[in-house]
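Tokens in:
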């Protein structure tokens, strides 16, 4: 199958990009895509669309205060650091924006509070050494800022501190929220349990690469960024039980889906940790996930390609055209879709 970026483009008026979260998490809209059927719902209707015995798999990662501002110790030149991921108790890979890229050995003064040393480069990232006296995540929590996505055209405020986290966030490590989970509150989770649905968790730490554009016209030439995941044994067991009962495994968010499918590429799904650079395109054979709760994704993005693989390219085109025409809110703080069944056509 020959696929180009143009196959995954759609017109999106800028005013459809949500800049603020709704006051009530579950008050967002939900577009149901079930085969060829589209239906406008509210997100709080989700328990009505889930069958007893279905299993929802959530990503319990927590967004860290990954953005830091400062200056170079030797020249005073300004720098902006966006931590991509921790690679040890006191080391991290990060994007560094500066008028001139710092070399190995350079010292950066961040937040007027502490120094970091540039150890070198790892691909597009800078390898930074943070102070030994405090845990990296604790240091970032005290001095860093929440990194809102680039399409939200404002600085993070106090509201974002809670609303750009899921209510079940536990494991720190992401630089972007698993946004499908932002629609869930405790009351909705309780209603899903009352419905008889199972709830399980994985952890996938979302990297800044999730926002990087595809720069190759032939999408098969694109190389995905790597993200680290952990899949607990009880989640693998819950998936096996749902399968044995003939029920669906519903990924809450593309991050949950990538973790599960990435872990199942080399054999049956097993508990453990690893990294995935899985690039899901139309024609992909899904091993684990049957359905997906997800937000609306950017034109020409790898995530739009992923949902096109799950639901089919034409159904996704129609769904997105419907969402634009009916004034759904798009991206991280926007509305959601429920892709109720996967398209197994290859």
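Residues out:
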């Amino acid at each position: 199958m020959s696929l180009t970026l143009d196959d995954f483009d759609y017109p999106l008026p800028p005013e459809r990009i949500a800049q603020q979260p709704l006051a009530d998490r579950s008050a967002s809209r939900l577009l149901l895509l079930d085969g060829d059927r589209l239906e406008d719902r509210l997100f709080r209707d989700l328990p009505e669309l889930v069958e007893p015995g279905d299993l929802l798999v959530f990503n319990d990662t927590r967004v860290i205060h990954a953005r830091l501002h400062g200056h170079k110790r030797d020249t005073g030149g300004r720098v902006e650091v966006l931590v991509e991921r921790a690679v040890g108790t006191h080391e991290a890979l990060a994007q560094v924006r500066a008028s001139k890229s710092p070399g190995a050995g350079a010292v950066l003064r961040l937040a007027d509070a502490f120094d970091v040393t540039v150890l070198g480069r790892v691909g597009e990232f800078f390898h930074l050494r943070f102070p030994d006296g405090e845990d990296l995540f604790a240091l970032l929590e005290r001095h860093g800022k929440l990194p809102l996505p680039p399409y939200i055209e404002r600085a993070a405020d106090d509201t974002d501190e809670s609303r750009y986290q899921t209510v079940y966030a536990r494991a720190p490590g992401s630089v972007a929220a698993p946004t499908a989970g932002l629609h869930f509150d405790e009351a909705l989770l309780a209603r899903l349990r009352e419905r008889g649905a199972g709830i399980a968790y994985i952890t996938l730490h979302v990297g800044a690469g999730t926002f990087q554009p595809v720069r190759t016209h032939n999408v098969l030439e694109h190389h995905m960024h790597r993200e680290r995941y952990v899949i607990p044994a009880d989640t693998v067991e819950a998936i096996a039980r749902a399968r044995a009962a003939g029920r669906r495994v519903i990924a809450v968010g593309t991050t949950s889906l990538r973790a599960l499918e990435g872990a199942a590429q080399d054999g049956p799904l097993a508990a453990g940790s690893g990294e995935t650079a899985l690039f899901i395109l139309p024609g992909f054979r899904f091993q684990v996930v049957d359905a997906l709760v997800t937000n609306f994704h950017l034109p020409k993005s790898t995530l739009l390609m992923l949902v096109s693989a799950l639901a089919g390219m034409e159904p996704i085109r129609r769904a997105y055209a419907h969402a634009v025409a009916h004034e759904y809110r798009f991206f991280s703080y926007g509305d959601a879709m429920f892709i109720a069944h996967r398209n197994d056509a290859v």
